[in-house]
Amino acid sequence: MSAKSAVVAAAVLLCFSASATFGQAPLYDIRAELAYYPAGSGTWVVQIRNVGPTIPGPVKAEYYLSIPAGAQIVQWNLNQMQCAPSPPLVGNVTIVCTKTLPGAWAAGTILSNQLFYASFRRPGAVRPQACVRTLLFRPDSAGNFQVAPETATINNATCA
């Protein structure tokens, strides 16, 4: 192979290997976790976990908790999340919660635990399921938060 051919081959290889990442935003992965604990009147616990790489700050997570008909949220413990509307809430209703971190969100960590204390209108009936869906936001070049790409959005929603 001539020197000129080797340079062309190296340039082509460099272009193909770089094209997969050139201009792409980093891909992150957050997961919605929802559990139900029947002690007392019942509690749904929501956690949003970073299951991907560390996400540089600022970063914002938002989730939507759908409370079904037949359930009532009587109280909550938000642990620094901002949520609306406020209890008492009678299902069929969606609660929207957000938290913005000025710094990085470390890989493998939980953003916050939120406890939603429930009561049910028909004691002894089959408990209705609540569902949660989450989104990740990163700032654009103007500083406005936009939905960020993720590697696996299938783990962004769950029911319990």
Say how many strands there are: 11
The total of helices stands at 1
Low-confidence stretches: 1-23
Please identify the structural class as seen in this structure. mainly beta
Estimate what percentage of residues fall within beta strands. over 45%
Order of helical and strand elements: HEEEEEEEEEEE
| Computed Rg | 22 Å
Helix content: 10-25%
The biggest sheet amounts to: 6 strands, antiparallel
Our measurement of the CA-to-CA distance between the termini, rounded to an integer number of angstroms, reads: 63 Å
What is the overall shape? elongated
Mean pLDDT: 82
Report what the structure shows.
Strands 3, 5, 7, 9, 10 and 11 form a six-stranded antiparallel sheet that branches. A five-stranded antiparallel sheet has the order 1-2-8-4-6, with no helix packed on it. The N terminus is likely disordered. The protein is built from one helix and eleven strands; from the N terminus they run αβββββββββββ. It has 160 residues and is mainly beta. A hairpin with a 5-residue loop joins strand 1 and strand 2. The longest helix is centred in the first third of the chain and has 17 residues.
